[in-house]
């Protein structure tokens, strides 16, 4: 067979133990047709075969995120200012100030997760006063993890919160001495107040949502991601909020493979939700680009144990088991797999009681059901999951919240959160993902760095050496291991003959770069089914055209997505706040904060590592 494409001169990490280090690969009809010696593969070259020399770069299978809110995230990506990866609060606020200047009414400046205060040199969040100074007229909504949201005065007016607005169940509108809202919203411990407030903001027009989703997919391609399992989400109703992704699929504009889960939307009506949906679609319905995966991650509202490690573990309702059983029985009887959000072992313990009860009547051990998160799971419950044929999808939430966990439970308790090696030794399928875009960044390399180094993004070492993954183990969790969770084993996740030709050519060698450089990797060439979906550097001209982000004021157009510490990103931020050269007002360069890992001393914002140009 004459291949469509041959890739030469790459260091291929195939993850195929029988063929770990080939010289070249050939691709035909969207699949790997040959993986082996360059001489043999070049002998099959035809007149229409394209040949790409990879210049000795590391090549990996396309990354698979087993837990990302891609569909909801795509609808909003173009109107969200990303603080993911920004190393100082000063630079983050400079970005916010610039964005506020160009965002027209009635739109907001939204920073919707993906960051933590611990990543900043200043080791803190902005104050409400600082946000008001940076954006006196444009509504600003800043979501920090699952614990809080910061709103400026303009945003409080936009959402209509006054001294007469009551606190919702499980949430708090912080007030001043006169009872007026300050702009701080707290999840205590229910995050619904945060998301319900965010939902009050304007939406993009349908054609802009299509553009936004395409840009979010391309951003993930830039980072080497080729497949995603969508975990549903609040305010993401089926089928209404799936119209955009359906259109992109129909029009052949998907640059990611997406398997989606259906997330219940109505408290008290969960059974009705799943009864209706399982009559509309069947598990695995669709094709290799877009398909139904199952139910969850929310099955019943009473089982939701939001992780906010600043707060004590929430006690679930006494009636949770009965509500969960009704849903799980329905799903098991209709052969519809599920996933369940569960942070704490106590939640997992109670859920397993239900799963075991259902299993006695309707076996579930072939369904590929699984728990998400499982940071504090015990050995006993790992073994119970193994016996029931379940899996565990882990995410790098501890990279963003590890400091809070240690503060509440101690460093010893944090040493295996989650205990991945114990899960693997028990024979439980384990896969990795991000849980982006709100509670963590969508950047897979931040997750891979966390798995390998055991460090938070703030630099705290959580895990001792025995609890950390070697690089190939971590890569397997992000590739072939994740195929179990979408029931696609053998179809993708490795570079081998017959597998879907999804791969990423990296900016640096993941297997040899310094540990602290792992989080800064990206892809310079990404292929989906043998087609180029992203190119950078030497491969820029090979990348397919993408319309510019819309609307014109989009933060993506001004700043892009994930903000790395590279010089190009420093230039964007420094230009945006008007001090591309040394700041004459405060006498320093942005680059000091950009390049430094050293936290400032004291609590004063106008420090040697910060820049107050946004407030001038």
Automatic annotation (TrEMBL):
Species name: Dongia rigui
Keyword Protein transport among record annotations: no
Amidohydrolase domain boundaries: 50-534
Keyword Hydrolase among UniProt keywords: yes
PANTHER family for this protein: IMIDAZOLONEPROPIONASE, PERIPLASMIC PROTEIN
Molecular function in Gene Ontology: hydrolase activity
Enzyme class: hydrolase
Listed name of the protein: Amidohydrolase
EC assignment: 3.5.-.-
InterPro entries xref list: Amidohydro_3 (IPR013108), Metal-dep_hydrolase_composite (IPR011059), Metal_Hydrolase (IPR032466), YtcJ-like (IPR033932)
Pfam families: Amidohydro_3
Signal peptide (residue range): none
Entry keyword set: Hydrolase
């Amino acid at each position: 067979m004459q291949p469509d494409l041959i890739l030469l001169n790459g260091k291929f990490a195939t993850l195929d133990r029988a063929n770990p280090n080939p010289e070249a690969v050939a691709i035909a009809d969207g699949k790997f047709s040959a993986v082996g010696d360059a001489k043999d593969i070049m002998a099959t070259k035809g007149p229409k075969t394209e040949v790409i020399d990879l210049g000795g770069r590391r090549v990996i299978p396309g990354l698979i995120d087993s837990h990302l809110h891609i569909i909801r995230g795509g609808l909003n990506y173009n109107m969200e200012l990303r603080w993911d990866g920004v190393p100082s609060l000063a630079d983050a606020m400079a970005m916010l100030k610039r964005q506020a200047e160009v965002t027209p009414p009635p739109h907001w400046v939204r920073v919707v997760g993906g960051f933590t205060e611990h990543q900043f040199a200043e080791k803190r969040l902005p104050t409400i006063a600082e946000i008001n100074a940076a954006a006196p007229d444009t509504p600003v909504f800043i979501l920090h993890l699952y614990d809080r949201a910061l709103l400026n005065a303009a945003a409080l007016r936009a959402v209509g919160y006054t001294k007469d607005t009551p606190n919702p169940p499980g949430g708090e509108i912080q007030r001043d001495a006169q009872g007026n809202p300050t702009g701080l919203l707290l999840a205590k411990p229910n995050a619904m107040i945060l998301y319900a407030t965010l939902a009050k903001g304007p939406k993009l027009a349908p054609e802009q949502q299509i553009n936004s989703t395409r840009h979010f997919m391309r951003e993930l391609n830039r980072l080497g991601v080729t497949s995603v399992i969508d975990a549903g989400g609040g305010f993401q109703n089926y089928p209404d909020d799936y119209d955009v992704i359906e259109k992109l699929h129909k029009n052949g504009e998907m640059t990611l493979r997406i398997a989606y889960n259906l997330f219940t939307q109505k408290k008290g009506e969960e059974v009705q939700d799943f009864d209706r949906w399982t009559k509309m679609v069947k598990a695995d319905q669709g094709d290799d680009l877009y398909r139904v995966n199952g139910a969850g991650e929310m099955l019943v509202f009473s089982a939701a144990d939001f992780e906010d490690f600043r707060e004590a573990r929430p006690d679930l309702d006494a009636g949770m088991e009965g509500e969960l059983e009704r849903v799980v029985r329905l799903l098991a009887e209709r052969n519809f797999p599920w996933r369940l959000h569960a942070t704490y072992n106590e939640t997992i313990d109670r859920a397993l009681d239900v799963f075991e009860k259902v299993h006695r009547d309707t076996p579930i051990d072939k369904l590929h059901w699984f728990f998400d998160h499982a940071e504090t799971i015990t050995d006993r419950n790992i073994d119970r999951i193994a016996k029931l044929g379940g899996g565990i999808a882990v995410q790098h939430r501890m990279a963003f919240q590890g400091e809070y966990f240690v503060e509440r439970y101690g460093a010893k308790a944090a040493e295996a959160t989650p205990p991945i090696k114990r899960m693997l030794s028990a024979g439980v399928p384990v896969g990795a993902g991000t849980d982006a875009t709100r509670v963590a960044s969508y950047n897979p390399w931040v997750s891979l760095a966390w798995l390998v180094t055991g460090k938070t993004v703030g630099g705290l070492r959580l895990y001792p050496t025995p609890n950390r993954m070697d690089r190939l183990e971590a890569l397997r969790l992000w590739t072939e291991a994740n195929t179990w969770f979408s029931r696609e084993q053998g179809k993708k996740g490795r570079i081998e003959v017959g597998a879907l030709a999804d791969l990423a050519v990296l900016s640096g060698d993941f297997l040899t770069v310094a540990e602290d450089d792992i989080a800064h990797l990206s892809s310079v060439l990404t292929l989906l089914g043998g087609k180029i979906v992203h190119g950078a550097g030497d491969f820029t001209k090979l990348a397919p055209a993408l319309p510019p982000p819309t609307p014109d004021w989009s933060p993506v157009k001004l700043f892009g997505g994930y903000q790395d510490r590279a010089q190009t990103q420093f230039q964007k931020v420094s230009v945006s706040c008007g001090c591309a050269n040394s700041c004459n007002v405060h006498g320093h360069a942005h680059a000091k904060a950009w390049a430094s890992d050293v936290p400032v001393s004291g609590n004063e914002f106008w420090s040697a590592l910060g820049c107050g140009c946004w407030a001038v």
